[in-house]
Amino acid sequence: MKFTIKKLTVENFKSFKFFEVEFGNRSTTIKGDNETGKTTVYDAILWCLVGKNSLGETQFEMLPMGAENEISPKVELECLLDDKPVTLTRIYQAKFAKDKTFRKRETECFINGIKKGVRDFDEYISANIAKTDVFRLLTNPLYFTEQMLPPKGMVLSQAQRNMLYDIAKDKIATDKLFAESNPEFAELVEPLKRYDNITDYRSALRTDLFKTQATANEYPTKIQQQASNFVELDFNPDDVKKLYAEAEDSITWLNEEVNTIRAEIDKKISELRDVVVKNRTEDALLKAQNEAYKAKQINEHAREMLNKTKEYRDEIFRIENEYNNKKSKADLLKSKISSLEAQAKREEDELNSLRAEYQRIFATQTPINEICPTCSQKLPADRIAATKEKVEAKKKEELASCASRGKTAADRHNATLAEIQALRDELTAMGELEYPQELNRLKGLLRDVEASDGLFEPDNMPGYIENSRQYRQEAELAEMQIDVIRRDGEAEIADLKAQIAGVEATKKSLDSKIKAIEHNEIIQQGLDKLKAEQKEINIKLDGLQRMMDLTKKFLEEKSRQTLTAINSMFELVEWKLFDYTLEGDLREVCIPMVNGVEYPGLSYSTKLLAGIDIIKTFQRVNDVYLPICVDNSESINFDQSMNNQMIFLTRVEENCPKCGGQAGRRNNKGLWTCKSCGHTWKKKLEITKEE
Q: 668-677: long-range contacts (C-beta < 8 A, 24 or more apart)?
């Protein structure tokens, strides 16, 4: 797809209030001094197409200097998509409230004069021309080489490398495939199943190697420190171990004898304790049976007392409840009567007030003014009569209203008096309320029953005292026998322990020597372990280093093939994608070169040519040919043999048209003032094009 700009129209955009330029099919050169709007042309094109300026900013100052809020920046491009004409328009439209005051701005987009949403417009650009994020890459020669540079101090831009690898992906094998196809790198096939690429695997190897080397460096010191912990012996270790073992055997035999005697004592005591437990248990069981026997008597007595108590309490509750209900009902009737009497008094007062109001209205005579307040002449008889009729009608209306309210109030008062009389009749029918004397008699009987409950004494079970005495005597006899056996056994054990103490004293005299022997044995074990670990670490270290060497060779070989594949796609530029660290390790870089000179050392014109060569490659790979905008193109001699439309922005110093002096400052109207003669003029852009 080839995209060609035929015409650009700019209104109220940055330094342009109005600017229009027609572009040549091959090239267009826009010449002008600094600050005359050359870069603005490129900004306008990008903003119209993708909503960003040449720096990739979506928010930037686009209103002309001193512009009012009513101004709406507008950029329109008349273009060709291959041979199909299309007009693209973007407006930063000012919006106003109902009172005509400025409210905000909104972006409006048009395709061939038809309004589109911003999202729909952007999707059209992406689908038919190029994705919005690659416009600067495909139109600005310095974008890839300078505006995509990594942060200061870094030599690698992963984004740049990824783009180069992407355009050459059909010519570059993946790390996995490269390893599989080269028997020399067969050992790397398995690791590349776990890592995305050889660089990640090498990074993991380097980390493991560093840690392993650090660990290996620690072992000589550890071994030396371990060997320095040996204790020098002034005796034969075997002789000391023999004496120590004999002492331990003697102590073991004497302790076994002690344990045997103690076991016999424990057995006899256990048998006698069984006798004690049996008799104590029997006595406890007998006691429990007796307590159950007495409890049964108590329960029977309590049940009898409980039945009597319940009988008295139920009857007391019934009588008290009957009395309280009657009293509550009488109190409620008295309360209702009192409340209704107060209501009847208020209703009677209301009736008296209405009667007085009726008499007042009936007696009122409204005077009729028969003299005209305007001319002071007596009113006509018909007007006087009409006025009298209105006064009388109003009086009748007021009397009727008062009478109606009086009737309603009288009905309500009569109803209240009737309700009071009904309640009084109900209260009279209940008769006098008297406290029942039967309650006092029942409460006395209840107190007598409750007082007699604690005086009952139950009898023991037959034979309880004699049988309990026999069980206790047999248990006491067995406990005395236990005391005798324990006393005799402990004396025999004490003699054996004295022998043990003598042997332990002998053993203790050998403890320091045994500890020294054991200490040296532990040190030797640790020393053997350290040496074994050192050997394993060294084996691992050798393996890691061998794999590091193999991955380095892998990267070197693949880098040569990769570099050849990528460089074959460019005419002027060669790429330096790999370099070596001071330690000899391969590192990734991304440096364009021309004739062996790295990019930072190139002249500005050569940098532009390099950038154009990069754009040519990317446009060819993507089959998208966009206009290339070359700023500061005065320093370049360019072979226009490309399948692209070129836009050259060239600086040409413009002096005072009157005296030829240098321009000073620009005022807010866009006019320049001569430093020599003070003449003011507007600098112009000179446009030439080639079809």
A: 668/65, 668/66, 669/66, 670/15, 670/65
